[in-house]
């Protein structure tokens, strides 16, 4: 009697002809997620099965797989021969731990191997009898059973389980292209990256720093955050771009009330060029309407105007509280709130414009020839390969 994991996938069934591709990607992502726990992962008829995990690591493997985008749910299951005697014995063993007190149950059966000698209804009924006889603490409740005993008779084997652990959902990373995350070290941008990756998009990331106005530790914090996001999103190329020259020039030469939005425009321009060079098809930011002066509707329009790539802002309608909740869920919050300066906060204007006009900002930007500085920033950018395997 083997212990295995039975994995159901989320939206992949929607994908018609692409389905085998999506399934393969999901299996690949699952293999990466369980590494280095030994496992054999196989697809079978609309499910994925994880075999050969050492028993003492099964729970750990299940948890890791639940966090893979594309996974709907995971059931730790007993995998047995398709033989009625064996199935009865497995069901009895399976529920043994749950019947030390009186409880209610119901049996469910699925039979994709139609050659199996009993119908689904027969299986349910007979299994119900067996369990009722074995355990006086059990009573049947067909409407709200506390214990759901399921048997699935498939081509390869029969699988029995009582638990269904919820997966994160979404789609396997890599099935929906690639996008460039502008990551700042704050609370919002890592969450924004997570949300887009959850839709199957793989990530690259860019961070702007301003030595000596921002510290080395602020940069380390961004690297740390990127590592956490990579646990979910897969490997991430993180581009670290020096922004000091551009920032000082904006500060000296452009109207002070516009500095934040101008900085944002230049960040977007640089991010877009790196995105184009590395095959990313969109930009991602952690902005939400009205959160700060640079995120009013007018400011967002001015930021968008700087680039032609689509800009994804998955947090656009979120309150800060909701974003914090997500950051806690995905494990980035504690790192995000470490108090190191971000380059935007160092140069924050006293009276930022809240209703900037696109034409006005274009004109302010044209006061300086930023092109050589942009080129220099890109040329000297450092690319760090952040592996999903760095953290345990
Ligand atoms: P966050 O928590 O992401 O820092 P925030 O509310 O502090 O968000 P801002 O500082 O106004 O927001 O920045 C808005 C967005 O611009 C960020 O979510 C991020 O996508 C991008 N951004 C800001 N600063 C940087 C930076 N230094 N490097 C890269 N991207 C940045
Ligand atoms: Mg910020």
Describe this structure in words.
This protein has 392 residues and is of the alpha/beta class. 40% of the residues lie in helices and 22% in strands. It is built from 14 helices and 15 strands. Strands 1, 2, 3, 4, 5, 6, 7, 8 and 9 form a nine-stranded mixed sheet that branches. A six-stranded mixed sheet has the order 14-13-10-11-12-15, sandwiched between helices. A hairpin with a 2-residue loop joins strand 2 (40-44) and strand 3 (47-51). Helix 3 crosses helix 4, helix 5 runs parallel beside helix 6 (216-233) and helix 8 (259-278) crosses helix 9 (297-304). It is elongated. The mean pLDDT is 93. It binds adenosine-5'-triphosphate and magnesium ion. Residues 182-184, 186-189, 206-208, 267, 285-287, 291-292, 294, 342-344 line the site of adenosine-5'-triphosphate.
What would a concise description of this structure say?
With 392 residues, this protein is α/β, with parallel strands linked by helices. The protein is built from 14 helices and 15 strands.
Task: Chart the SSEs and their pairings.
Layout: E1 2-9, H1 19-34, E2 40-44, E3 47-51, H2 58-66, E4 71-80, H3 84-95, E5 103-111, H4 120-134, E6 138-140, E7 147-153, E8 158-161, E9 165-169, E10 178-182, H5 188-198, E11 202-209, H6 216-233, E12 236-242, H7 244-253, H8 259-278, E13 283-284, H9 297-304, E14 311-312, H10 320-330, H11 333-336, H12 343-346, H13 358-365, H14 371-379, E15 382-386
Parallel strand pairs: 5-6, 5-7, 10-11, 10-13, 11-12, 13-14
Antiparallel strand pairs: 1-3, 1-4, 2-3, 4-8, 4-9, 7-8, 12-15
């Amino acid at each position: 009697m083997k212990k295995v994991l039975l994995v159901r996938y989320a939206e992949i069934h929607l994908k018609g002809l692409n389905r085998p591709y999506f399934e393969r990607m999901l299996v690949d992502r699952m293999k990466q997620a369980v590494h280095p726990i030994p496992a054999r992962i196989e697809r079978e008829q609309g499910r994925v099965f994880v075999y050969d995990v050492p028993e003492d690591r099964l729970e750990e493997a299940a948890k890791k797989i639940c966090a893979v985008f594309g996974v709907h749910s995971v059931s730790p299951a007993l995998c047995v021969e398709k033989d009625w005697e064996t199935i009865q014995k497995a069901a009895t063993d399976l529920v043994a731990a749950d019947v030390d007190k009186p409880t209610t149950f119901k049996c469910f059966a699925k039979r994709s191997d139609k050659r199996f000698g009993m119908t689904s209804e027969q299986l349910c009924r007979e299994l119900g009898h067996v369990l009722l006889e074995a355990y006086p603490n059990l009573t049947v409740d067909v409407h709200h059973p506390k214990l759901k005993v399921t048997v699935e008779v498939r081509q390869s084997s029969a699988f029995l389980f009582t638990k269904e652990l919820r997966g994160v959902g979404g789609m396997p990373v890599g099935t929906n292209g690639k996008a460039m995350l502008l990551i700042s070290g704050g609370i919002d941008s890592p969450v924004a990256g997570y949300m887009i990756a959850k839709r199957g998009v793989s990530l690259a990331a860019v961070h702007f720093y301003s030595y000596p106005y921002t510290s080395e530790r602020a940069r380390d914090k961004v690297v740390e955050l990127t590592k956490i996001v990579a646990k979910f999103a897969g490997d991430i190329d993180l581009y670290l771009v020096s922004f000091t020259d551009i920032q000082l020039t904006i500060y000296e030469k452009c109207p002070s009330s516009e500095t934040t939005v101008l900085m944002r425009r230049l960040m977007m321009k640089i991010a877009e060029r790196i995105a184009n060079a590395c095959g990313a098809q969109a930009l991602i930011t952690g902005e939400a309407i009205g959160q700060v002066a640079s995120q009013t509707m007018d400011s967002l329009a001015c930021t968008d105007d700087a680039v032609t790539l689509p800009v994804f802002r998955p947090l656009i309608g979120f309150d800060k509280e909701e974003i914090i909740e997500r950051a806690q869920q995905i494990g980035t919050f504690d790192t995000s709130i470490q108090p190191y300066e971000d380059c935007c906060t160092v140069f924050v204007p006293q009276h930022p414009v809240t209703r900037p006009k696109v034409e006005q900002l274009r004109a302010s930007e044209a006061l300086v020839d930023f092109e050589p500085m942009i080129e220099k920033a890109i040329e000297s950018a450092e690319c760090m390969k952040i592996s999903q395997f760095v953290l345990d």
